[in-house]
Structure formats: structure tokens, C-alpha cells
Design brief:
single chain; 138 residues; alpha+beta; Thiol Ester Dehydrase, Chain A; 5 helices; elongated
Length: 138
């Protein structure tokens, strides 16, 4: 892995969220809440239409962390997020991560703990998710 420094920013290529993607996520998660998969029902809610599962957007952050940290992320990554706004079919979502802290890992002389601020942004650059991640890297 390349050298990582405080202030570095990593970006996942934009993802176009479609109703089909939401439906596939519902199948994988076995979560068929009509708010996500039934446009007619969802029109009657305060959202006025279907919205993506929050965890679908979190999956974009997970993908970014795997691309950035690989096996280290899979073995010890930690994520904490808050959901800020719904994601609707047709929106384009970008996941970004910024290194905010790097310290020596407690249990190893040659490993570092990397803390990152993470966000998912819609096409209007509004935060739909914000949070932090931590991972111990070699």
C-alpha cells in the first residue's frame, strides 16, 4: 500500500443509484420494506417516493475502504455513520474519505492506526451520510 498522510483524500467513482439497484439490495438483505421497493406505496409517505436502504449507501463507503486498505480493512476496519438525508433512485452518490489522524497502533511497533472522516454526497454535494472509520494498517 502506498504511504498515507494526514489530509489525504480518497474518492470512490460516482454511483448512479437506480430502483433496480435498490431492489437487488432488498433481495440481498431480505428487506423488502415497501418504502424501498413499492413506488406506489412510497408515494403516499413523507418521502413522496422510494428511497434506498441506508446500508446501501454505507456499502459505497465500505467499497472505498476496501479499495484503499484492502485486507487490513476487511480484518479490522471499524465504521460509524449517521444518516443525514434519503437517497432516491436517479441520484448519483460519491463516497469520500479524508485522513484526519494517524498514530502508532497500540499493539505493534510497525503498524499505524488511521482515522478518516467519511461522507457520501449526492449530486447537489449534500451529505447523505457522514461518519468516521478507523483501521490498523501495516
Amino acid at each position: 500500500m502506498k504511504e498515507i498522510s494526514k489530509g489525504d483524500v480518497f474518492v470512490l467513482p460516482a454511483k448512479n443509484v437506480t430502483q433496480l439497484m435498490i431492489n437487488h439490495y432488498a433481495d440481498a438483505a431480505e428487506d423488502h420494506n415497501p418504502l424501498h421497493v413499492d413506488p406506489e406505496f412510497a408515494k403516499t409517505t413523507r418521502f413522496g417516493g422510494t428511497i434506498a436502504h441506508g446500508m446501501l449507501s454505507v456499502a459505497f463507503i465500505q467499497e472505498l475502504m476496501v479499495r484503499t486498505f484492502g485486507r487490513d480493512w476487511l480484518e479490522n476496519g471499524v465504521i460509524e455513520v449517521s444518516f443525514m438525508a434519503p437517497v432516491r433512485p436517479g441520484e448519483v452518490i460519491t463516497a469520500e474519505a479524508k485522513v484526519i489522524k494517524i498514530v502508532p497502533a497500540e499493539d505493534s511497533e510497525n503498524k499505524r492506526q488511521v482515522r478518516m472522516q467519511v461522507v457520501c454526497l449526492n449530486g447537489k454535494q449534500e451529505k447523505v451520510i457522514r461518519g468516521t472509520t478507523e483501521v490498523i494498517v501495516s
